[in-house]
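Regression test case RT-17, inverse folding.

Input:
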């Protein structure tokens, strides 16, 4: 499973080797460093709470469209704009300071 974090024209790819034992703290550290490299902060964005839900939404989706992903998109999560893309891709975008937008995409392991 891959997590792509992007802002403007820059991106960071993070491999999630075991979605059932997600190391959220390690992933958060990478995201915070990426955002800080742009001179920004997450300012309370609950990515730490969102990531496990996104991973659960697409983990094991090889058999078809995962109900958890669609349920997450339908119910939403805080101030994130969520979308499910055909093929098992789950996306989220959230606003940072100065009008910047942080995009998160999780790609399933096929």
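Golden output:
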């Amino acid at each position: 499973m891959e997590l792509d974090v992007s802002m403007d024209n820059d991106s960071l790819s993070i491999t999630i080797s075991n979605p059932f034992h997600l190391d959220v703290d390690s992933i958060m550290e990478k995201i915070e460093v990426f955002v800080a490299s742009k001179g920004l902060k997450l300012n309370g964005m609950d990515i730490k709470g969102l990531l496990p839900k996104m991973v659960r939404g697409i983990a094991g989706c090889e058999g078809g469209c995962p109900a958890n992903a669609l349920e997450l998109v339908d119910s939403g999560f805080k101030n994130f704009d969520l979308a499910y893309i055909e093929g098992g891709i789950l996306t989220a975008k959230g606003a940072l300071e100065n009008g910047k937008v942080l995009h998160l995409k999780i790609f399933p392991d096929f």
